[in-house]
Specification:
Elements: H1 3-20, H2 24-31, H3 35-42, H4 50-60, E1 72-77, E2 83-87, H5 92-101, E3 109-111, H6 118-129, E4 133-136, E5 143-146, H7 158-162, H8 171-174, E6 180-184, H9 197-203, E7 208-213, E8 216-221, E9 231-232, H10 238-249, E10 254-258, H11 264-275, E11 279-281, E12 287-291, E13 300-302, H12 308-320, E14 324-331, H13 336-345, E15 348-351, E16 355-356, E17 363-370, H14 396-402, E18 406-411, H15 418-422, E19 431-436, E20 439-444, E21 452-454, H16 459-471, E22 475-479, H17 482-487, H18 491-496, E23 501-506
Parallel strand pairs: 2-14, 3-13, 9-10, 21-22
Antiparallel strand pairs: 1-22, 1-23, 3-5, 4-5, 6-8, 7-8, 10-12, 11-12, 14-17, 15-17, 16-17, 18-20, 19-20
Function: Cell wall formation. Adds enolpyruvyl to UDP-N-acetylglucosamine.
Domain HTH cro/C1-type: 13-67
Pathway: Cell wall biogenesis; peptidoglycan biosynthesis
Length: 508
């Protein structure tokens, strides 16, 4: 192997390790080697046998170093205008929450138009391994879920569970089914340390205690403990709120949850629970009151609403390529701050009259964009809990700001290192200055140019890189796109339907 090839392999291994959330020492322990050896491998200073590469790939559970089909890459011919219409698919985050919530129900759950993404696939592998029967009913993504009378938690697919942070949302449903159980540590995007303590604060009033040792969450439930006063969440997080609501859904009594997230996926969860006979007051507010049912056995059919983050992704692609497209079925209730900010920056677009999603609750519109000359906003751009600018939509404003005239300060206060990945736009000709782990200054307008780069290990920054490549002059390559497939279904194919030129390939 050449030094350059070893260096590239080392970078791939380093990124895969960080994506897994491991230190060099942790990887060394699994490989039965030293931390210094792992350090040499990642720096490209260590020759590697095929056997060692296979062991690393197995340890990291990552396509990046897989010897099978190899990682998937994208080749993008940029500088093309997009045109046509596209429908927003159903919400990723609602879909995974509803898969977890199906464990509350003894009856059959049918979910409509579920996004067939890797995050969903991992959860289905976990559910199947513990005895839940899941069946895709058609090509439209309708999914049937039938739980067993008794879950087989000891047979849980630990590898699949570790590859999704959503596994943390098993805590709320399982505490009513099991007196003691274990879950593998949650995985997911490499966005920095996320403590599970807010989840524990939300679930202790239901008698749940969790100790984290040996790569597992060890859960014990004390049935003598029940909520005696309103539960105040220490973090207005989406998954924390969902866990608390799911725990309250099977609690035979009334639970008040304050500082709750009223975000889109939480609302979808509440609408689903309503079909199960769980009355919830205050949906869409920061105080929800859950009238629980100790036993739930109902056959239900529910269609989760459309994904506002995907809608923002498509909107961003239209903006940076200066294209006129129509984005149909955009959940406007969860995009209103983003649209107001874009209007301030000079975006020219039309929106249709509002209509309801298939769940009969969520408000949708069709958005038609026109090529616009944008300018930097007066104030910094930063996220806030709903109804503020969505945390997951913030990265898209980095590439939008790069096409605008002036300087834009973007403050990602939620994650301690996601902003770092936005500096990858510099590899495509951007002028993004990292001020600290939370803040970047973006200078525009940018004339993006094609380049080859590794896919950032965080979902939204990865899509930001892909969108910049759509606007870049020449041909770009984005390597190892598994993280994009975690959150988007056939994104490259769907962008191609609008006139993009994106080719999926693998190394020989």
């Amino acid at each position: 192997m050449t030094d350059d090839y070893l260096s590239r392999i080392g970078n791939l291994i380093r990124d895969a390790r960080k994506h897994r959330g491991w230190t060099q020492t942790q990887l060394a322990e699994v490989l039965n080697t030293s931390q210094s050896a792992v350090n040499r491998i990642e720096k490209g200073h260590q020759n590697l046998t095929l056997e060692m590469l296979a062991r690393i790939g197995e340890a990291l559970d990552s396509e990046i170093v897989s010897l099978g089909g190899g990682p998937v890459h994208l080749r993008v011919v940029g500088g093309r205008r997009l045109s046509g219409s596209i429908d927003v698919k159903s919400s990723k985050n609602a879909g995974v929450a509803l898969l977890c919530a199906s464990l509350l129900n003894k009856g059959r759950t049918t979910l409509r138009k579920v996004a067939r993404i890797e995050e969903v696939n991992r959860l289905l592998e976990v559910l199947n391994s513990i005895g839940v029967k899941t069946t895709w009913l058609n090509d439209a993504g309708d999914l049937e879920i039938v739980p067993p009378a008794q879950l087989d938690l000891e047979s849980m697919d630990a590898d699949a569970a570790r590859r999704t942070r959503s596994i943390i949302m098993f805590l709320g449903p399982l505490l009513h089914r099991e007196d003691a159980f274990e879950l593998p540590y949650a995985g997911g995007c490499d966005l920095g340390t996320r403590t599970v303590e807010p989840h524990m604060t939300a679930l202790r009033p239901f008698g749940l205690e969790v100790k984290a040792t040996g790569g597992q969450y060890h859960a014990l439930v004390n049935r003598a403990i029940a909520p005696g006063k309103p539960i105040v969440l220490t973090e207005r997080g989406d998954t924390v709120t969902e866990n608390a609501i799911m725990a309250a859904a099977r609690f035979d009594g009334v639970t008040v949850i304050r500082n709750a997230s009223p975000n889109y996926m939480v609302q979808d969860l509440c609408f689903y629970l309503d079909l199960l006979g769980v009355r919830i007051d205050g949906i869409g507010t920061t105080t929800v009151t859950v009238h629980g049912k100790a036993d739930i056995d109902v056959d239900v059919d529910y269609a989760p609403s459309e994904d506002p983050i995907e809608a923002m992704s498509l909107l961003t692609a239209a903006i940076v390529t200066k294209s006129e497209i129509t984005i149909r079925r955009a959940p406007v209730e969860f995009l209103e701050i983003e649209l107001a900010l874009l209007e301030e920056m000079g975006l020219d677009y039309d929106r249709s009259t509002e209509y309801l999603a298939e769940n009969g609750r969520t408000r949708l519109v069709d958005l038609t964009t026109r090529p616009s000359k944008l300018h930097a906003p007066i104030d910094k751009i930063h996220p806030m809990p709903f109804p503020g600018l969505n945390i997951d939509n913030l990265p898209f404003f980095a590439v939008i700001a790069a096409t605008a005239t002036g300087q834009t300060l973007i403050h990602d206060w939620v994650y301690e290192n996601r902003a770092i990945y936005l500096a990858d736009l510099n590899k495509l000709g951007g002028r993004v200055k990292l001020l600290d782990p939370h803040r970047v200054m973006v200078e525009g307008p940018t004339h993006f140019s094609g380049a080859e780069m590794m896919c950032p290990p965080a979902l939204r920054p990865a899509v930001v890189a892909l969108i910049a490549m759509l606007a870049a002059k020449g041909t770009s390559v984005l390597r190892s796109i598994y993280v994009i497939n975690r959150g988007y279904e056939d994104l490259a194919t769907r962008l191609n339907s609008l006139g993009a030129q994106i080719e999926t390939f693998r190394d020989i």
